[in-house]
Amino acid sequence: MILLLPAVGVMVLLAVALAALLQFSVLEFIPGSLRTGGLTTRNLDAVLTPLYLRYIWDTVLLSALTTVLTLVASYPVAYALARSRSARVRSLLLVLTLAPFFTGAIVRTYAWMLVLGNTFIRWPVKLLFEPAGVLIGLVHFSMPTMILILAAAISHVDRTYERAAASLGARPRRVFWRVTLPLSMPGVASGSLVVFAWTFSAFPTPELLGGGRVKMIANVVKDLALDAFNWPGSAAFAAVALAVTFLLLAVVTRALVRTGGAAA
Amino acid sequence: MAHRLVVSLVLALLFVARPVPAADPLVVSVWGGNWKDTIEKVIARPFTAKTGIPVEFEVGGTLDRLAKARVAKAAPLVDITFTTSHVGRLYMSDGLFQKLDMARLPHARELAPEALRSDSHLGVWAYVYTIAYRPDQVKMDITRWADLWDPQLKGKVGMPDFDPSHIITVSALLDGGDERNWEKGQERLKRLKPNVAAFFSTDARSQDLMKTGEAPVQVMLSINAFHLIEQGLPVKVVNPTDKPGIVGIDTMAIMAGTRKSDAAHQFIDLALSRDIQEQLVASFKAGPTNLKAVVPAKLRGQPGVFTTPAEWKERGYIMDDETRARTLPAWKEWFNASIVAK
Fold first, then answer.
1. How far is A44 from chain B, CA to nearest CA, in Å?
2. What CATH fold (topology level) applies to the domain A2-263?
3. Helix or strand or coil: residue B53?
4. ipTM for the complex?
5. Nearest CB to B327: which of A31, A223, A226?
């Protein structure tokens, strides 16, 4: 029982912080002042307008696209990492996968700014400061984690099943689609959930690669709080976004666990 | 016995090794990078030499520091704050600044009237938000604010989105309004959208965009433009002929509740003295607020550098701090919805 105390302490702290956020969201904003007025629902009314709801929609869309593209780009690498017969290839892939963790989000994003801009490459379409550029940055940022989760899942797939399928005449492609992929679905589910959840709260990537034109929820919270000094409005938007996050995570978790669970 | 000897020796060593207690340091809140380095070199070191009081710095962005000051209101973490004049109004709205004792600031009598922003914060240097551009990447001469709307600049203009007050005011001024009736410039500003390449949220990003050529024409802080020129980048800083640049005044104030009010007044007075002002001008390429300060010949007449009461009035447009602080949230919302959003 005593071992639970630290966890309970952290939960209480989080609950207090959340309560403070909710309290701020219903206090009146006084432009030109840091003081707040009495209780009001105006902040919530203001953020439930098309302008702010669009930012939430954009975030959902970018998070979903990032999850799908990251999964598609990561699976082959994870498969090679888990199944390559060459220890050298596995080591190389592992180093390449882990390397981005040591560079940090800001450095990686600045590197993408140089790549996506027109400094070194003349792209036929504009990528920097566009949703496409932000998407590329988010996918790259998410890939290492997805690869590691998928590789762990694939390496746990018992190869006896694959050999059994092959011995019954299934070609390698059919073995992959009917045996390996379904058995690795728990990894697909948990990797997708992790990537979706953290992309939903992404800040530096859309801030830098979006050039102010592509904003996700965290960027708008910062805009309201630190640029417009509208802390009650920022708290109201954060509260709405938090509610949407919980709702989406519940839906996505249910869908993914069902898929993963069925496969497992 | 041996034990006592060891304890005595250790205590003696500790006593001998104990550093001489320094005076309680004055803590100054300021922007990072070149801002902090220059203030440390030009103001803090002479201050310490003169008073024996060491100076420590707390660095951060304008609004991060405001947020910090607010949560530490009961026991301020800093004694002096450098901030922009309209953000100073926000500090004042929450009682975070103390009223200055002008009798203890003799050099304040030499300030341009525009630098006396309130009885709690005083201007220490000035600059303008104006047009800066790279002539190697833009095929036209830019001489007026109205040139920003030229179709030749399609997809080339960068501007701040963290504080769109400058371009909103310019747009209003061009259409016969000002910051108080800014709505007059709304339609004009909407027409600028095709020319906008990017928005930036920090000075560093603004400079990056200029360096990489992603946004070779910008509504830019004159000090940053001069800094890029010093680094060898071909940048032209425009003194617009149709409407003046929008003046920014950085200010100093003493935090309410500080126990070092005397030292803080001495620091501010020193920063306003002619000699220190001249060094600040040379370092930042900014305008002095002390009218007695002598400006190097090559800086005279440059955007944001005002040396006489007449220049302060004619060569820059100073927005009303109160209006700006009060209207900025509405400006931000309108700007995000109408200009930033596609």
1. 15
2. MetI-like fold (1.10.3720)
3. coil
4. 0.74
5. A31
